[in-house]
Amino acid sequence: MVNITFDYGRCVKCGRCVGICPSGHLRMTDGGPLAEPGRCMLCLHCAAACPQDAVRIDGARATVPEPMDTLEAAVMSRRSVRRYQDRAPDRLTLQWALDRAAYAPSGGNRRPTRWSVALGRPQMAAIKDAALQYCRESGYAPDLLAAVDRGRDPLTCGAPAMILGWEPEGALNPGTDTVIALTTAELLLTERGLGTCWAGYMRRIVERCAALRQMLGIPEEGVPVGCLLVGIPSADFPNIPVRPAAQVFWLEE
Ligand SMILES: Cc1cc2nc3c(=O)[nH]c(=O)nc-3n(C[C@H](O)[C@H](O)[C@H](O)COP(=O)(O)O)c2cc1C
Prior knowledge:
By secondary structure, this protein is α+β, with helices and mostly antiparallel strands. It has helices spanning 16-20, 45-49, 70-77, 91-101, 121-138, 142-149, 176-191, 200-208, 210-215; strands spanning 4-6, 26-29, 32-35, 55-57, 60-61, 114-119, 161-168, 195-198, 222-231. The radius of gyration is 20 Å and the shape is globular. The structure holds flavin mononucleotide (FMN).
């Protein structure tokens, strides 16, 4: 367990950390933000979003101080975006990223990934409705329904677009090629100023729900591998939070 605290000498009580926390783990008090016990998944959105760099993890600054080269910066400054502007992203930009994702490695260069894209608020609303209806009727994902009833939206995060990568059944490396392609597309989209968030709930529901598969043009034998919400971010992340060092077993001389 780590201890998230705030440097109240720097904090201006703007509330960005409280608003951006995907777990609802923080609350604002008269004295400034406070972390509730439990629930934190250590994504450090609070530290990334704080304009005053006032978040502390176990007493230490939670952000990376050094400038980096462009690829390193792109990797480290990518965040799961859960707040989007109303305007949908441009179709050409999405097509560009998916075309470029064909340059990602794939087993046997088979490039098995097929894409389904929902683009626009009405399209996303229809998908969200169908997904929630499926959950209500089938009893699937009661935690998601509970979150929706509390006014949260971990399903679509209010995104105006969504890219789903799927594969025909029987791929050589099931899932792997498509995750690599999606990750490649995600970084390209981020580099073009778009925000993304992987949508695990959505993928799992599409996998099960025939109506959604039909809406998204996925045949019965298609396997949904990964889903990415996409849009123009409405909040920025001025800081890069610290992540723990890789845990590696080295076998070497
Ligand atoms: C496979 C996968 C599924 C995810 N599903 C969801 C989801 O359904 N809803 C959501 O809000 N975030 C989802 N996320 C985002 C993670 O919560 C996020 O990556 C994590 O908190 C770390 O934050 P960061 O991406 O900003 O570094 C998912 C991430 C991955 C890789």
